Amino acid sequence: MxxxxxxxxxxxxxxxxxxxxxxxxxxxxxLVGSIIGSGIFISPRGVLLGTGSYGLSVLVWIICGxxxxxxxxxxxxxxxxxxxSGGDYTYIKMAFGDWAGFLRVWSEICCVRPAIIAxxxxxxxxxxxxxxxxxxxxxxxxxxxxxxxxxxxLTLLNxxxxxxxxxxxxxxxxxxxxxxxxxxxxxxYQLIRGHYDTFIEPFANTQTSVKKLSIAFYIxxxxxxxxxxxxxxxxELKNPEKNFPIAIMSSIVASTILYTLAYSAxxxxxxxxxxxxxxxxxxxxxxxxxxxxxxxxPLLVSISAxxxxxxxxxxxxxxxxxxxxxxxxxxxxAFLHIQRLTPVIPCLVEGLLGVLYVLVxxxxxxxxxxxxxxxxxxLSSAVSTLIFRRTMPNAHRPFHAGVIAPTIFIIVMGLxxxxxxxxxxxxILVGMLILVSGLPIYWxxxxxxxxxxxxFSERITxxxxxxxxxxxxxxxxxx
Length: 479
Prior knowledge:
By secondary structure, this protein is mostly helical. Helix content is 74%, strand content 1%. Strands 1-2 form a two-stranded antiparallel sheet. The chain is globular and about 70 Å long.
C-alpha cells in the first residue's frame, strides 16, 4: 500500500508546466542514437575474437539482440506504470529502498555516463581529424581539445534548449541511418560482384571454449546498452502509455537488424582476420571499395559518435534531476531555468565531469570495470517488475510484460553476470568497490545528514539560484 502511495507521488512530482516535447519518432531517435553509437563502425571485433568465425559471431549478435527484447518488455511495463524520468533509478529505489537508488544514481552520474561521454567525444574528434593528418595519427592534444569542445558545445545546447537538443538528436539519428545503409548497400554491391567467400564456410575456425563464448556474449550485449534510456525522459514523451512501448520495442528490433546487416557487410570485403586487426573497420571497408569514401566515412562515424554523446547527456541529466527531486541529491539538482526550463546544474556537472575524464584519460578502462553494472541494473529492474506485481497489484498497467519475459531476462542476465564473475573476477571486484563507495556518501549526506549540512546546503542553493536563474518546478514560468 505504501508503494502505491509512492507511485502516486512520482506521478504528482512531474512538472505540470512543461509540455512533453518528445514525439514517438524523437523517442526512437533517442534510443537508436544511444544504442548504435560508434562501436559498429570502429571495432566490432570483440565478439569475433571470442568466437573465431563469422557464422558464430553473427549468431551471437542476433541472440544478444533477442535477449534484450524481454528486458524491453519489462521496461515498457515499468515506464507506462511509473511516469518518472528517473527511469531504472526510480524503479530500483521504489523496489529495494533509497540506498539502492542512491547507489544507482551515484555510479551513473559520477562514473559511467561521464566516461561514456568522454569516449564518444574522443572518438568523434579522432575520426574528424584523421583525414586531415592522414597517413599519420592526429596530434594527441588536438584530439583532447576538440573532444572537450564537443562536450562543452553539446552541454551548452542541452542547457539552452530541450527542443534544440531533440532536433540535433534527430539529425544525427538520420545521419547514422544513412551511414549504416551505405555500409549495407556497399555490402550488397560486393555480393552482386561475387565477393561472398566468407559466407560459403561461415563457421570456419569456430572456437567453442566456454570461457571465450561466454565473454563473447557479454561483450555482444554491451553495444545494445542504451535501450533503456528513454525511461530517463518519459516525462517529456508525448502519450507515453502508447509511445513508450512502441519506441523501446521497435528500437531494439531495428538496432538488431541494422547491426546484423552492417556487420555482415564487412565480410564481403574483409576477412575475419582483417576485422579483428583493423583499427577502424568501417573506414577500411569503405576505402577498399571506393577510395574517396575514406573521407566521407570518418565524417559519418564522427557525427554518429556525437549523436551518442548528446543522447547520453540528454538522458542522464533527467535522472540526475529526479534524484534531486527525491532528496537523494541536493535539491538544486531538480531546479530548472526559469525561462528555458532546462536542468542547469545536472547539465553543468555532467559536462564538466565529461571534460575531466577526457583530460585525465583511462575512461575506457573505467567502463571496463563498470560494464557489469549496466546489466546488473537491468536485472534489478526486471526483478522490480515482479516485486511491483505483489506490492502494487492494483496499479494501472497500460502494458503488461507477463511472467515469462521477466523470468527469462532475469535468468539470462544472472547467468551472464555469474560467468563474468568467474572468468573476470578482478574487473568485477574493482567495479563493485567503485559502486559501493557510494554507501559512505549515502550514510553521511542522506541517511544521517547533520543539520549543519542542511543549513550550508540552503545557503549554497540560494546563491546558485541567483547565479543560474533556476527555481523549483512549481515556480517556473511558461516558456
